[in-house]
Amino acid sequence: MCGRYAASRKPEDLALEFEAVPAAGQPPLDADYNVAPTKDVYVVRHAKERDAEGLPTGGGHRELRAVRWGLVPSWAKDVSVGNRMLNARVESLTEKPAFRKAAASRRCLVPADGWYEWAKRLDSPTKQPYYITPEDGSVLAFAGLWEVWGRGEDRLYTCTVVTAPATGALTEIHDRMPLVLPPDRWAEWLDPAKEDVAELAGPTPPELVERLELRPVSTAVNNVRSNGPELTARADSVGLPADQPALF
Which residues in 139-190 belong to E strands, given as ranges? Predict the structure, then answer.
């Protein structure tokens, strides 16, 4: 699963990276090194363009928008359902009612610096957190879905992160991972006209996974109230799981 990640980039940098237009009227989000469910996060989505009367023009553009993490389907009775919808398994995107319509036409990218997972230790019952991030410091793009709940001023935009079976060295830490999409797949994932969800949601390329650093970090990240770049710093001493790959 993906239940915690880091997102520190400024909106103007994300807009440039993803060739997106920031949504109007939204204050910038602060850098967050411990993003947790129900927090506001940035997503990149396809936004339909409308004329002065609010009618669709047939055009569209990439939009950078702050939304709440935890998908709330339009038919939900209240927003609390989003607390259980932070992840969508890639295997059932087209089957589950909560995700089916969004998977068909409301796909998004969730920018991130990296994400956290927890593995068993040899010397303690406390699990060891790892920060998983590109070795070159580049941005990650998680596959996501977005929805709108409510009407008028009560409209709430929300999202979920798509997860897939872990691959490569990541399997030593957790059996799931966010579905990370390389730049050459961003356009098709965002295109609402693309209908073959299974093809669009193919596995993260092995070469992308090989470029990820699996960095042991302090257990300070366990507390959702903790924040700051120090959470992503390498821990001095950890008890590694048996048969852990020699990446540390």
Answer: 140-149, 156-165, 176-178
Check: CB of residue 234 under 8 Å from CB of residue 218: no
Strand partners for 219: none
Q: Could you tell me the residue ranges of all domains in the chain?
A: 4-114+138-214
Encoded tokens for 215: 């960095």
Residues 6 or more apart whose Cβ sits within 8 Å of residue 43: 64, 65, 67, 108, 109, 110, 111, 144, 146, 159
Beta carbons within 10 angstroms of residue 38's beta carbon:
15
Report the alpha-carbon distance of residue 5 to residue 139 in Å, rounded: 12
CB of 73 within 8 A of CB of 97?
A: yes
Mean pLDDT of 122-131: 87
pLDDT band at 1 (very low <50, low <70, confident <90, very high): low
Q: Are strands 56-69 and 21-22 parallel, antiparallel or unpaired?
A: parallel
Q: How far is CA 39 from CA 42, 100, 197, in A?
A: 10, 23, 27
**What homologous superfamily does CATH list for 4-114+138-214?**
SOS response associated peptidase-like (3.90.1680.10)
Q: Taking phi first (over 0 means left), then psi (-120 to 50 degrees means alpha), and beta for anything else, what does residue 206 get?
A: alpha
212-235: average pLDDT: 96
Read off the pLDDT of residues 153-202 as tens digits, 9 standing for 90 and up: 789 999 999 999 999 999 999 999 999 999 999 999 999 999 899 999 99
Q: Which residues are catalytic?
A: 2, 117
